[in-house]
Amino acid sequence: MLWQVPLFDIAFSHQELEAVQKVLQSGWLTMGPVTQEFEGAFADFLGVKHAIAVSSCTAALHLAAVALGIGPGDEVICPALTFVAGPNSIMYTGAKPVFAEITGPNALTISPTDIERKITPRTKAIQVMHYGGYPCDMDQIVGIAQAHNLAIIEDVAHAPGAVYKDKLLGTIGTIGCFSFFSNKNMTTGEGGMVTTNDDALADRIRLMRSHGMTTLTLDRHRGRAHSYDVIELGYNYRIDELRSALGLVQLAKLEQNNRRRSEIVAQYIERLQNVPFIQIPFANFEHRSAYHIFPVLLNKPIDRYWLMKQMKSAGIQTSVHYPPAHLFSVYNRKFGYNRGDLPVTESVADRELTLPLYPTMEIEQIDFVCNTLRELLSRWL
């Protein structure tokens, strides 16, 4: 359907088209000099030693867990209010995702208090997810991790360019994992990045990204090697040059686009803060967000799916971020998770509604969304 206001929108310019055309004309399509340039630019942007481009954030999260030596018998604490790629990446290794609560309805990020409560002798790492682009409480989480000798995997899929105090997200934990999926703040369609300051971890991630091979096709093409060994059972998590070219252009636009997202969120809050039946999480947030999504919570007696249907009829796309991961059938079947295990997360997830947010939103579209929402909610008064 043709939405008057879609949930997200991609606005490529001649810059992306020219970058892709240049790659097509180069004759080299996968993991070549453009990918190396993209990795260098991303590392410089964050101020980290290593940025390793991969095929998706799911691949990044999986490689992070593998590089840290996580495997069968281990546990990794993670939020349930997240995209399923996070806990799935833990399960890929044979380890168990141990779901922790979010802080509450005002901050939908993982609770440091519940992290500490869930630590056992089998805990190997903490996987945090900066929900909506809003940083987790990293001071507390880093303190817990240091006290228990745990690694931290940062899922930064929602938060490229976000800052906790004076540190960019993806640089605080042991490893950072970024997403360049179609709806993300910077997009290559599919794609991801792994970041770290640990040389040994970076070497292992690069090795495992491409089948555990000791040299790459580009190395052999340039005459740097004539053959290769395979020293570990790796994966095909390579990115191609086309997506790296898109990534370079999108990275250059990221800070400007994040600023525009912040302006739109401020306009939303101004228009919706006193609307009945709506609660706005992160409304007085102290750290710099990347403003990936704009979530609101619906209070009783609002029927979320009735509201979403009415918004759809008006041409406004909405969504839910997210169904709690611990309630998916695979986690119930494998680990016995059930409703009631995470009451705070479940209560928030049952009420959450995501409104449209993207840098090219016009003021008229913001007004249309807010006015439509206000009118629909007034029917419940």
What do these coordinates show?
This protein is of the alpha/beta class and 381 residues long. The protein has 13 helices and 14 strands. α1 (14-26) runs antiparallel to α9 (241-272), α3 (57-67) runs parallel beside α4 and α3 (57-67) packs across α7. The protein is globular and about 75 Å long. The mean pLDDT is 97.
Summarize the structure.
This protein has 381 residues and is α/β, with parallel strands linked by helices. Helix content is 40%, strand content 15%.
List descriptors.
Aspartate Aminotransferase, domain 2, 7-stranded mixed sheet, 2 domains, 40% helix, 3-stranded antiparallel sheet
Please describe the topology of this protein.
Layout: H1 14-26, H2 33-46, E1 50-54, H3 57-67, E2 75-79, H4 85-92, E3 96-100, E4 102-104, E5 107-110, H5 112-118, E6 123-129, H6 138-148, E7 151-155, E8 163-164, E9 167-168, E10 175-179, E11 192-196, H7 199-209, H8 217-221, H9 241-272, E12 278-279, E13 294-298, H10 304-313, H11 329-335, H12 343-351, E14 352-355, H13 363-378
Parallel strand pairs: 2-3, 2-6, 6-7, 7-10
Antiparallel strand pairs: 1-11, 4-5, 8-9, 10-11, 12-13, 13-14
Helix pairs in contact: 1-9, 2-9, 3-4, 3-7, 9-13
Largest sheet: 7 strands, mixed
- Tell me how many strands there are: 14
The H-and-E topology, N to C, reads as: HHEHEHEEEHEHEEEEEHHHEEHHHEH
Structural class call reads alpha/beta
* Average predicted confidence as pLDDT: 97
> What is the H level of CATH, i.e. the homologous superfamily of the largest domain?
Type I PLP-dependent aspartate aminotransferase-like (Major domain)
End-to-end distance, in Å?
31 Å
Ranges with pLDDT <50 over ≥5 residues?
none
CATH class of the largest domain: Alpha Beta
Strand content: 15-25%
Number of helices: 13
Shape: globular
Radius of gyration: 21 Å
Strand neighbour order, sheet with most strands:
1-11-10-7-6-2-3
CATH architecture of the largest domain: 3-Layer(aba) Sandwich
Our count of domains comes out at: 2
Helix content: 40-55%
CATH topology group of the largest domain: Aspartate Aminotransferase, domain 2
